[in-house]
């Protein structure tokens, strides 16, 4: 049989060339707020189901109707009117007239929503990520951890003549060569508030070999600006305007002092001047910026259960065309589990890696984890 001139190899070569010539990332928040900069909806969306013309829909009984996605656990809270005329998810007060504010520690930001519990906001967070084109890989209200699966920002693919013509037919093979994932941590804050942080992780597919015929995924640095964009989008979900959300980001309130390493007891620990509430949140954010994944956490015991995670392995078999020829392997947890303990120490807190008996872990791996946390907390 005569081989077609428009072969699979040619398609792949063209797609890969386009992938490595994607538009450069924007450096400012205003650039990222452009409506065409973030578009994950094409990643896994499908057209809505249509009822055939010769069939009629039956009347659904109210008792069998699913509750709206905005309904919180135990019932949806009533939104509050602000002086600015918004219908806000948060509860306005003198310090926060919009019912929420942003706090900041270096380039890490998190949203504080006044007068709401994590249970009340959880359904809105689930709907938020779905509305932005993501599938949730982890969705556990009990631990306050919500993680999206890897998705592609289609806005990174240039809209050139190739994509406008051939790309319409084979758009599944037209890739930016990048994948993004977002982790949301939801904490019960002080005075009836809820703290919400969003952490970005990124991978890029790189060509390898002399003939560039194969590829592998490598980690890219997290993008704090992209995290801020999604925090802004979340504030809009909660009732703010785009201008108000931008202003709250600009007015982010600074966090507290850095962590200090303590080696006086023969084991390496971290000392923070923060009380437990703030320290627990800061350590959770810091862990999100390392290669250690939080599997679970127990706030009452002050324990984060973490393990080293190689993100590139998740997409090892997810190249541009591998999904056509092979099924995805089952995901299994690998690597040793570590227990990161946050506990009160005088007016501040101490952070240590401990064993199952609560004793400080003095292994080289534990000390490396403490060093990574120290770097992230400073």
UniProtKB/TrEMBL annotation:
<dbReference type="InterPro" id="IPR042268">
    <property type="entry name" value="BamC_C"/>
</dbReference>
<feature type="signal peptide">
    <location>
        <begin position="1"/>
        <end position="24"/>
    </location>
</feature>
<keyword id="KW-0732">Signal</keyword>
<feature type="compositionally biased region" description="Polar residues">
    <location>
        <begin position="79"/>
        <end position="91"/>
    </location>
</feature>
<feature type="region of interest" description="Disordered">
    <location>
        <begin position="72"/>
        <end position="93"/>
    </location>
</feature>
<dbReference type="Pfam" id="PF06804">
    <property type="entry name" value="Lipoprotein_18"/>
</dbReference>
<protein>
    <recommendedName>
        <fullName>Outer membrane protein assembly factor BamC</fullName>
    </recommendedName>
</protein>
<dbReference type="InterPro" id="IPR010653">
    <property type="entry name" value="NlpB/DapX"/>
</dbReference>
């Amino acid at each position: 049989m005569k081989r077609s001139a428009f072969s699979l190899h040619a398609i792949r070569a063209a797609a890969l060339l386009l992938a490595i010539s994607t538009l450069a990332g924007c450096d400012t928040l205003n650039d990222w707020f452009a409506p065409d900069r973030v578009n994950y909806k094409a990643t896994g969306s499908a057209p809505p189901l249509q009822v055939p013309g010769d069939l009629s829909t039956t009347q659904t009984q109210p008792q069998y109707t699913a509750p709206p996605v905005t309904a919180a656990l135990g019932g949806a809270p009533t939104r509050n009117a602000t002086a600015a005329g918004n219908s806000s998810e948060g509860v306005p007060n003198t310090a926060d007239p919009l019912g929420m504010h942003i706090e900041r520690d270096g380039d890490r930001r998190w949203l504080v929503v006044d007068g709401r519990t994590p249970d009340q906001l959880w359904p809105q967070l689930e709907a938020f990520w779905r509305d932005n084109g993501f599938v949730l890989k982890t969705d556990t209200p009990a631990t306050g951890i919500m993680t999206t699966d890897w998705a592609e920002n289609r806005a990174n693919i240039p809209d050139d003549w190739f994509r406008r013509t051939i790309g319409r037919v084979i758009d599944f093979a037209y890739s930016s060569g990048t994948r993004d994932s977002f982790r949301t941590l939801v904490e019960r804050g002080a005075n009836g508030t809820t703290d919400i942080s969003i952490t970005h992780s990124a991978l890029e597919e790189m060509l390898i070999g002399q003939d560039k015929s194969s590829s592998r995924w490598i980690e890219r640095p997290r993008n704090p600006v992209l995290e801020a964009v999604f925090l802004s989008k979340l504030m809009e979900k909660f009732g703010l305007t785009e201008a108000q959300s931008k202003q709250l980001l600009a007015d982010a309130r600074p966090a507290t002092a850095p962590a200090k390493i303590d080696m006086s007891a023969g084991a390496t620990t971290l000392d923070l001047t923060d009380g437990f509430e703030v320290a627990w949140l800061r350590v959770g954010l810091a862990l999100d910026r390392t290669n250690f994944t939080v599997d679970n956490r127990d706030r009452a015991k002050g324990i984060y259960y973490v393990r080293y995670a190689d993100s590139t392995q998740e997409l090892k078999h997810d190249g541009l065309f591998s999904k056509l020829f092979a099924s995805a392997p089952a995901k299994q947890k690998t690597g040793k589990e570590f227990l990161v303990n946050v506990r009160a120490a005088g007016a501040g807190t101490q952070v240590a890696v401990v064993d199952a008996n609560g004793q400080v872990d003095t292994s080289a791996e534990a000390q490396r984890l403490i060093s990574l946390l120290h770097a992230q907390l400073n």
